[in-house]
Structure prediction request, 131 residues.
Amino acid sequence: MTHLVDSDWVADWLTGKSQAVQLLSSLGRDGLAISLITYGEIYEGIYYGKDPRKSKQVFQRFLRGVDVLPLTKPIMQRFARIRGELRHQGRLLSDPDILIAATALHHDLILITRNLSHFQRIPDLKLYEPR
Prediction:
């Protein structure tokens, strides 16, 4: 597993956006994962979307080739350090974003996200940059 996929890219894949389908399909050979946070955010979209039944089926198909990484005590400790540093700098992010970043850092994964300006605030976090 080499990449952690943020909720924005998963949502794009689920709606069939070609850029997301192509990128995640190509990187999927090396192993993809999502955080438990992304799992919850996507299910919120499913439950309150236009066609929950169909969306759930599409998401379950996506999950066949993707690991869902849990929140662990070490990840939560990293979250606390990141959140404290960002708060001290006056550059705080949302807790879900910090949890996703802490998960990527803990597992040494490259984060695939469209929210680069948010995640660039986090030291040592590897972000996917298209070629």
Q: What stands out?
A: The chain has a mean pLDDT of 95. The first strand starts at residue 3 and ends at 5. The CA atoms of residues 83 and 92 lie 7 Å apart.
